[in-house]
Structure formats: C-alpha cells, structure tokens
Design brief:
24% of the residues lie in helices and 35% in strands. The protein is an alpha+beta fold. The strands form two sheets. The protein has a four-stranded mixed sheet, with no helix packed on it. The chain is flat.
C-alpha cells in the first residue's frame, strides 16, 4: 500500500479559517457588549419645588439614588409629602428610584429626566434643566425643581457606575 503525501499548505487552510472565525466572533462579541440599551422608567413626581417650605439647598445638579426607605427619610421635606408617601410604599425589592435635583436657584424652572441608558456597567441618566428666559418677567421666587423616577432594580449590576448627563435649555413657552 502506498502512502499519500499531504501538502503542508492544505493543513494551513483549516487553521487559517478557524483563526479568522475566532477573530470575527471576538469582534462581534465586543460590539454586542458595547451597545447602549435604553432603560424604561416611570415618573413618580416632577415639580418646581416640594411645597413644604424646605428646599434641596445645593446649587448644582444632583443625582440622588433611593434604594430603601431610609433614603426617603433622609430626603425629608425636600420633596412633597405625596412623593414621600409614594416612595415609602415603593417595593424596593423590585424597584429603585432616582431623583435629579437642581437645587435652590432662581434661574432654573424645570428638571426633566429624558432617558436612562446602560452601556456595560455604566448607567447614564440624561436630564434637561430649563433656564428662565431673562427677557420675560418672572416672579421673584426661588425654586428647587426635581424629577423622581423609578425603574426595575434587576437592571443594576453589582458595580454600577452612575453618570448624570445634564443639558441646559431655555425655558419652554
């Protein structure tokens, strides 16, 4: 019986195809992981101020994460009584809540969370703060606008990084 001699170049073809497949699969996997996902949420309350006489005192935008009832107590009267009640009754096993505050300032009239996106372990809260139009007459009131939302807790990863992305726009007519 005569043995057949196999050309070395024939052996390289399957290995080359296998290597290309692994590289392409790896690129696709990285692409899939890096895509941004929009997270659905529900508004609990959105107001110009709490109506309690207390304000969130900081001047800059602030993201406050509400993970349990103790966080609600810590907020005190910086949010309305009805929002406090809604948050105290929230099922924290299923949901987590966020508040975006603007703080006690005369020039911002509204805060609105536009969307929440997740990319790997980063959760970005995209918010818009509306400025008062300086050309219009406004009452001399100081506001402390905020927007409270809730969303499913199960989307949070063990080591989630929270990012507050803020855009300033003129007041809507």
């Amino acid at each position: 019986m005569k043995s057949q001699k196999i050309s070395p170049s024939i052996l390289w073809h399957p290995l080359l195809i296998l290597a290309m497949g692994i590289i392409l699969f790896g690129c696709q996997t990285n692409k899939m992981i890096a895509e941004e996902t929009i997270i659905p949420f529900e508004t609990i309350e959105k107001k110009e101020h709490a109506g309690t006489g207390d304000y969130y005192e900081a001047a800059g935008p602030k993201l406050f994460i509400i993970a349990d009832v103790n966080d609600v107590i810590e907020l005190g009267n910086t949010i309305s009584i009805s929002a406090q009640t809604d948050l105290q009754n929230l099922d924290f096993e299923k949901y987590v809540a966020f508040i975006v505050f603007r703080g006690k300032v005369p020039d911002i009239v509204d805060v609105e969370i536009q969307k929440i996106t997740q990319k790997e372990n980063e959760l970005t809260i995209h918010s818009t703060l509306f400025r008062r139009d300086p050309n219009l007459a406004h009452p001399d009131t100081v506001l402390s606008p905020y927007h409270i939302i809730k969303f499913p807790r199960n989307i949070l990863l063990r080591e989630t990084i929270f990012i507050l992305d803020v855009e300033y726009l003129p007041e809507l007519p």
